[in-house]
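Give me the fold.
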Amino acid sequence: MATASKTRNMLENLVREGSFKWLLGKRSSFDEEFEEMGRSPSATKNWISELSPIANMIVRRCSKILDIPASELQMSFNEEASDFIKHPSKYARNFLEYCCFKALALCVQQIGHLADKKFRRLTFDMMLAWENPDAASQPLLDGDDELTIGLEAFSRIAPAVPIIANVVISENLFEVLSKSSGSRLEFYIYDKYLGGLERAIKRMKSQSESSLLSAIRSSRKEKILEVDGTVTTQPVLEHVGISTWPGRLILTDHALYFEALRVVSYDKPKMYDLSTDLKQVVKPELTGPWGTRLFDKAVYYKSISLSEPVIMEFPELKGHTRRDYWLAIIREVLFVHRFINKYQITGVARDEALSKAVLGILRLQAIQDISSLNYVNYETLLMFNLCDQLPGGDLILETLANMSSTRELDRTSNHTAGDGMYSVSALAMVSNLGFVFGTSSNAPYESGLAVGEIAVGEISVLERAVKESKSNYKKVVLAQETVDGVKVDGIDTNVAVMKELLFPVLEVGKLLRSLLYWDDPTKSLLFCLVFSYVIWRGWLGYAFGVLLVFLAVFMVLTQWSNKGRPIDALKVVAPPPMNTMEQLLAVQNAISQVEQLIQDGNIFLLKLRALLLSIFPQATEKFAVTLIAVALVLAFIPIKYMVLFTLLEIFTRYSPLRRGNSERWERRLREWWFSIPAAPVLLEREKDDKKKK
């Protein structure tokens, strides 16, 4: 009774203050709700002392949506949640999540919920309350227009409505939306984004319900995701060989279709499959007149089912944003089907994966619709595209596959989409929006799969995989920045840098060359004796092991001696600058040397071909006898003795005792090699039989 009296007195004080300036600084949309709570007879009973005022307000809204008193919600949470989730330090936030997930699961079942201003405000206020859940939280000091939310709150609440965000891309999406507001998201931008989502959904539904490709799509129940090329000022050009046709490009959840434009109608559509494994390659491409590569505005598609690749060009006056958008969504459909095929996902789980890709494309269309935002990297906002780029992205996909195929029994049998302990699934979200993807006939709520990616008070295995992958990605970005910083221009400068980097290797090479030519007979003799003994005793593996241990100890000692200090930069003496003519001559000389190396390689291969085909019988006979002798040696002599013999042969060849004989044998061998004729070569020019279609 004392607690109830205290709560009522506090609410009466709130009402008496009128504008709640002590809480919000100036009058906002929260004021009326607090005043109503103060006048309500049940306010005392439903006020939860562990929560902050704004969290109590959100719980009250959730209880109205669910038609369940807040006290009963709290009792239900206490019964369902584990002791870890109900720990006093986490109780307020976890209970708030429980109420939010439960209410949102019911809200998203309403048709047109994204267009509802109250729903938009509710989700944003949930994020505000998530940042200030405890009774001891600092009161908010801004009005509605100035209240902002942070990344952590957005990443926790927004994925509970899969159309708004998901766990994998939520951080990147938040960065895009908050770019203009200093890493805090304003309601104005958030509301604009949800409005863009609503328009994107209506546009996609109208496309899927249209007669486009109706005869083809009906067999696989394909849904149209995007259409381009219907406006004459923004055509899509298909390049196949030397032929080019304008037309209409259509992307479905299974394939890409192109309809060439005729005089008054469109030609029969060509299908470029994305759902089956045809070793497809989709990448950006350059196009231009007469086969030149000038304009970076095209998408390249190749598969084993096509005799030659296809290039889709997206002309625009400035930039290549249109191409980048289409490249991203085509790859998203391709990657989701690769994911499905790789892990052999079927049934409802397959529809769930397709739903994730579709929702990602809808989010991307909404971002495009927000004109105030600058250019963004589309691929970072699409889940399967992002997993293809992130280090450890395959582990994220593997986690998704495991979550789809091995749902815990209690989650699939005892928990449904409306269960407050879990958020809504992507499949349930898509179904609520009025789409039906895949072949599953059961509703998502009846299938038992409608369990989302976020659980109350827990970090799921998917969230852990995403955090680890993004942490590794940040390391890769930092490493790439150092790589970009040390790149230098000019062939001569790069050669100078390489020589300096290879200086230790070159010194070791000089030492081995000195031992090989017996410049110091004592060192060469000692080298041969030591390594011969090592090989004879079978210690060669131990010798390499000792070498690796030495390198490891060297690195550890270097790290210890540096003690976190930055390493000294590599000092390279830059070569004198060359003028344009000198650079051209250097390039020409380098090309000539490369050409000479290729010619020598071809001659070697042609002479080897002549030996194998017995074009020069005498040389072939000697070569065959040599091969038989080597085969007998390999068959009957232990490998240890062969290695020992090879070492002694190489490092005693130029010793004082063998130098004369070695030079004589090398001369005979060169003369024999030069006497072998090369196999004949006939060059034929390939005729260009490509015809304009």
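Residues 23 and 139 are 5 Å apart (CA to CA).
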